[in-house]
Specification:
Layout (H helix, E strand, L loop, with lengths): L1 H7 L4 H8 L4 E2 H7 L6 H12 L3 E6 L5 E6 L1 H4 L2 H14 L8
Antiparallel strand pairs: 1-3, 2-3
Length: 100
């Protein structure tokens, strides 16, 4: 359990994984879904998730530059677990927001 929480336990990592989901996402979309926070937080956590093999980052050599993030097979395995946690939250709390 300690290893799991070290990998995805930071407040925003599960939100990032959930936001990316089954499709590629650009940084701006991920940052917007996280609410009003500095760009530093998603940047750091995306990098950690990439280092842990949960997400992949693909940079396109275009002007302006474009970067997309997507879940690896390892990351895709987390989606049903996050969905179950979201459903649990909906049953037991009045909120139900992804980040709440």
């Amino acid at each position: 359990m300690t290893g799991t929480m070290a990998t995805i336990g930071k407040k925003w990592k599960s939100v990032i994984i959930y936001t990316i989901g089954l499709k590629r996402q650009r940084f701006g979309i991920i940052h917007t879904k996280m609410g009003i926070i500095s760009r530093k937080i998603p940047t750091e956590q995306l990098k950690e998730l990439e280092e842990d093999g949960i997400i992949k980052r693909e940079a396109f050599k275009e002007v302006p530059p474009r970067v997309e993030y997507f879940l690896t097979d390892k990351g895709l395995e987390l989606l049903p677990i996050l969905n179950m946690l979201t459903e649990w939250n909906l049953r037991h709390n009045s909120g139900g927001e992804v980040g709440g």
